[in-house]
Amino acid sequence: MSKSVQKEKAPINWTATIMFIVTTGVAVTLVPWYGMTYGYETSTWVSYLVLTWITGMAITGGYHRLWSHNAYDAHPILRVWYALWGAAALENTILDWCSGHRVHHRHCDDVDKDPYSAKRGLWFSHMGWMIREYPSGRVDFANVKNLMKDPIVMWQYKYYVPIVFAMNIGVPLALGLIFGDVWGMLLLAGFLRIVTTHHVTFFINSIAHKWGSQPYTDENTARDNAFFAFLTHGEGYHNYHHIFQTDYRNGIRWFHWDPTKWFIKGCSYVGLTSNLRTVPDFKIRRAMVKMQFKRAQEKLAKAENSEKWTELLEKEYEKYHAMLNEWAEAQSEKLDETRKQLKEKWEKNAIRQQYHELEEQLHEQSQRIKSLMAEYKASVA
Ligand SMILES: [Zn+2]
Ligand SMILES: [Zn+2]
Fold this sequence. Notes:
16 helices, mainly alpha, two-stranded antiparallel sheet, binds zinc ion, 2 domains
């Protein structure tokens, strides 16, 4: 089926469409009208902000990093929390969300298979994919079988609709009664929260696949974007995420704005999370240096009289490969040996030392490519 036929013939998904019309409609009409007519209490605004934060984090920490990617393990208390607030986000059940997301990673950008392929345009990847029943959006739970063993996931799946009502109407209603602003609370902490949380999540599929940098890979459209990381609880470091999806972090540097990472790490100190998975630094550096080479090669290939520079770069590239090969060999030798006799502790230390050396070497090489390209730039200026 061609792309255009698929687009024209896909029937409208009325459940999603009505849901979007109602929530957006209320948010752009009743919310400002009520504010101008009666005003909102400070407690109502604070509730809106807190609940928006909690709802968003249930999607990023729970639906995304925990359930879609198994980036860490979570205590049942935290899983129940995520299941409840994830339902409050009104982004479908854990099973549906994670199944679609795993397909997105597996077939990223494929216009026929990726449910929210960025190659089908900004609107499609943002919301368009949900308002019609495209074949690419059909879910098959075969890829979430591991989640079906989680009783909390299955409980949320079974009682999704009552949980949605309890979290989106029940909770704001209760808060409204406590703070004496029932309608205000329903409008802000209910409707407006849903709409803002929606778009914040949708940005990751649309904007984080369009604007930003690609420091680790250019094999897909995913981008790193610090500004959107700020809006999306850290998910804006999407280029990193697409290459190293099992890492519980998306922003890997300490200064990267990634509250989801901080929350997961914080929970580990009180036993709510464990087995936090990270990608070894040397692998991250390897990917970065590889991208640097690629960019430098492309640049020099286009330029005239760049033979000398190309040659220098090629030499660096040979060194890079030799370094990686040497390292891989040392690794396998060491592993063979340890299998025979060496103590586990010693092995860990030795490997850590090697990782460290390799990281240093890659770092130095990255600096050399940078200065090489800077020199080249100066020479042609
Ligand atoms: Zn992901
Ligand atoms: Zn993506």
